[in-house]
Amino acid sequence: KYINFELKNNEIKRAKILYERAIQSSLSMETNIDFWLMYTNFIQEHLKDATLVRAKFEQKLNDPISPLKKIDVLIGSATFEEQQSNSPRARKIYEQLDQEIAPGLVKATMARINFEKRQGNSDRVRELYYKAFNNALDKNDGLAVTFIATITQDS
């Protein structure tokens, strides 16, 4: 809350210091990835330093964090690259996430599908839906099958 106060008063340097202190004082930022992602958004929006944001993402990905938290960080990183108009790099991150880090995980698959939708790649979107649906069927994951089928109908 105090960070928001500083930002409202256009105290960018003070807000940066507060973010960094909060992150350093937390022994495990794994417990609050959302706060860490807010920090990367702050860097991007207020400091306008894409290189620093990339470095922070790389640093976080090298930290010992749980696989589920790593997925959130990777999605944040891919979203950042997309915002920087770096679609090839974003695609590479989404592919790594969907194929290597969390294959078959609906969250990872849907993040990749939504990226391809934003890129206007309707053939790729259909292919990814088909693959996700068949993977869920092969695993007898009824909930995922239902979810993917429902989302596919809405697309």
Features:
single chain, 155 residues, mainly alpha
Summarize the structure.
The protein contains nine helices and no strands. With 155 residues, it is mainly α.
Describe this structure in words.
The protein is mainly α. It has 9 helices and no strands. Helix 2 runs antiparallel to helix 3 and helix 7 packs antiparallel against helix 8. The longest helix is centred in the middle third of the chain and has 17 residues. It starts with a helix and ends with a helix.
Reported for the largest beta sheet, the result is: none
* Alpha carbon gyration radius: 18 Å
| Helix fraction by DSSP (H/I, runs of at least 4) | over 70%
Quote the beta fraction.
Answer: under 5%
Shape: elongated
Query: What would the average pLDDT be, to the nearest integer?
Result: 87
Pick out the low-confidence regions.
none
Order of helices and strands: HHHHHHHHH
* C-alpha end-to-end distance: 38 Å
- Enumerate how many helices there are, as a single number: 9
Structural class: mainly alpha
Report the strand count: 0
Layout of helices and strands:
Layout: H1 2-8, H2 12-25, H3 33-47, H4 50-62, H5 67-83, H6 87-101, H7 106-118, H8 122-138, H9 142-154
Helix pairs in contact: 1-2, 2-3, 3-4, 4-5, 5-6, 6-7, 7-8, 8-9
